[in-house]
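Teaching assistant here, posting this on the class forum so everyone can see the example we discussed in section. The complex has two components, and the goal was to see what a joint structure prediction looks like when all of them are supplied at once.
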Amino acid sequence: MNSACTCSGTPSDDVLVFGEDGEVVQPAIPGSVINRFFGPCPIGSLDGSWLLEIVPRTIFAPQVRGPMRIEVGASSLRVSGDMYSQRRLFPGQIDPVVIGTIGRPPIPDPIGPFIRGADGGQIDEDGLVIFPTTPPWYPAFPKEQYSWYFRSNGATYANGTLTVQIVRHLWNRATQEFASTDTGTLALTCRQNLIIVQRRPLVMEGTLTIGGSTSIVKATKTSPFYRGCAVEVDAMVNRSFPPQATIGSGAIATFKSIYATAGFDVTVTTNETNVPNDASLTNAEMSTLLSGHRQPFTGDDWHLWLLVGSAQGGLFGIMFDDDTVPREGAAGFADATLGNDSVILASARNQPLNNVPAAFLRTLVHEAGHAFNLFHPKHDVHMPGIGIEIMNQTGDVIGFATTANPYPNNAAFNFSDHDRTSLIHSPDPQVKPGWKNFGWGHGSLSAGLPSPVDVAGLNAGDTDDGLSLTIDVPQQAFVGEYVTAEVVLTNTGRDPRQVTTLLTLAEGDLVFLRTAPDGEIDRVLDVAIGCGPRPMVTLQPGESISNHVQVFFTNLGVTFTEPGRHTVIAQLEADAMTTVYSAPSTIDVRTAASDTEVAISASMLTPGVGRALALGDFAGDERARAVLTDLAESHADSDTGAASAMVMANSLARPFTDFRNDTTRKPAPKEADRFLDLAIAGRSATRSAALAVTVASPTEKDAPVVANTIARLRRSAPKTGARSRAAADSNSDIAAAERIAADFVSPQPR
Amino acid sequence: MNSSVSDVSGLRLALQTDASLALDQVLIGGLTLTAERDTTVSARLNLIEGDLVIDVTGPTGHTARCSWPWPVDAMPRRVDLRHGHELDGSVALLATDTSAPLFPEPGAYTLVATYDAAPGITVSSPPVTVRRTAAAKRNSDDARLLQRRDVIQSLLSASAMGDSDDALHSLASSDHVPTRTLAALALDQIDDIVSRLEDTDADTALDVATAVDAVLPSGCFDGDERRIAIQRAVSARRR
């Protein structure tokens, strides 16, 4: 940093400009002094972890806050943060945030037990005084509240004001992926008394401009480190965790000191040392040990469990935990032996890791790194290059060893720049144990996409305790295949609920949130939107209403044209105050494979056909009529062909007047019946009815295809008095079909 | 299906699989690394230790990587290969590196194996195509079970993960030898595997040995009691 020749005499008055990668792009510019004794904070004091809070504009505004990390390097400055938002519904529960008075939240100490030093400061296990008065802490919040992540894309620090251009990545709580990106500016001012030693945490105040609005923000420094995690170690009998090791340089390394090189504040607590012996451990056994031996904890602080175990084949260690709550546990195998190679330190050859502290410590730090979602460099999608740092496999580090510089002396007991940056700045879902699966960030799992919203972020995924919404869509479809969905709203509470009956995409109460494979989010609605009163129905506890809707052709055109995995969430305004979301459902969309599918796909993507299916009528589009006729006659065995036949049956059952050229298409009931027969043949009554109600436009409750289908099904019902099992099944099927038709007109609680 | 490619390193890697296999059965692949001159190579020709990956292109053009879902730390293991000698390995072609199904639907898949044979030397196999077809067994739920994450992780880790017990018991009754072997291994039914080997033919015994080697590979799991017991039974059957 250039601090030359200013009248202020304080380096912190200089203007520093940092680029998108955090590097200095403009040297210091002389500044001026406002007060000789009260001035800008030195830039170095910004380095570390902060609690960033957005001051609510009103008592109803969401509470938005989260950890922010400012990394001040010798010639660089990087900022990143993770924001969590929480809606505050009841004024009586609001705890307004007031600048200058906020205290430390009651977050459990993530750093573990501290020894108080003679000067009153805190001393960590390595004997370092790490904070003058209060122990460092790391803001952590429920992942259900996670809202957005940001990182710097250039910054300046001038006269105590840090101005950061940020890129914000919005989190979709339903899909648990980043959904969109926008940009903004974070400006924070830090001033402190230059004479009196600060005894309170450093505080900055300023503004955040993003999403079309400017908010007041406050940042409170929480630690000189960037992140913290409590690591609990349990050891199997006769195996031990290496508390420290002498490394190649002759220095002493500990688990804590190695992570400290990455600004990561870990506190290791060896809890059990007598986990029962088992000479060979499977992943399932380690999962059982994790759940049985890990100490219970509450809150949202970061926790990791490390097992000092026996062996799994010849492996040195494994991050075995990649289930639904992943990356909470890893293991090192004390019985695994180093080889007899000349590039291995003589005293370590053929020794179990338990007897070689440096090698074992390296493996344990390495496995914990996987739990923070770090990859082997050779498997990392960013291809950082193989080397001797922690996240390289032991085998690869040994590849660099020589007889003169044998393993483990040749190993570097620190993280590569690539991994260090990830540990400090990658989003919480990626790094925090227990969140995204292994592979998210450096492996084959990933996410990202844009659309500016306010500081509360996206709110999808909120739930109402008393109502449950489900959506049933096909797991797979090929491009052009007719796709329908069933939506069910259930009263899961104890009291009756008044809810809307408009379970259609055409009236605004129901909308599907579709995330395409490229991450784009769309609101899926019908092509025709009706307006009118919201008919309500009372759902008794346990009762449901349901409806079937088509999602082949919507306001997006053909909805599923992009091969890959689509995620669909139903969102329903159940009443004036309640929005209910379904769990996400996925549809894997593929290109047509067989000749039949190719033919169907080509026909369905013909202009006019989709619209005819959405409206239930080909209207005056003779080209669409021809295509639908061909689909009905050639592919009636498929739902797509049957739906086409239903459209023909609906269209031809009634007249159609084209007012543009004053022509009227007369009904053709016999042709309509023929198409209806094609649609129903070989199909269950239930499926026939479901197709009929999806083909009919939701705003046309009297569409003939629905009534005609039910009438046709009734005619084919077994005669009265038939007692066979088949007859009973058939009657039951027809009764279900009748309910589907009735629900199309007005959903009935059942 | 068998194919191989020569490399400037003097090594040829070949991947062998069934040309066609139903989706209710676990596909086991065979790998052969052949030396065209005397050389020292990594002996870790398996998915577990991280030197081998298999890239898969599916019928819709999507790609996936088959590698071990759990990151491991391990020692290097090397072997001297004389000219013309081969190193063999086997792999369970079941899941991606994120424990997702490797073959999510019927269709033709193209597979390419890539092996870090030595520091700075990577060899790839020529592509091979395998057609995954609809379930072989009518009314079978096995194809669906083989898409489940906990079942996939159980078969690969040779241990019953999560709530997979019922699914593994179903798979353990499969007619397909590798499928039932991996399921029985996960359920720790070693005695069942061994007793079945007593009255089976040589080809079946080889299928059992190959399946076991795919998840408890030689060199890495030589001391595993399960592997030892099964290998002993296979050897006895061969004699």
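For the discussion questions: Chain B touches chain A through 47 residues (CB under 8 Å). Residues 202-215 of chain B form the longest helix (14 residues). Think about how each of these relates to the inputs above.
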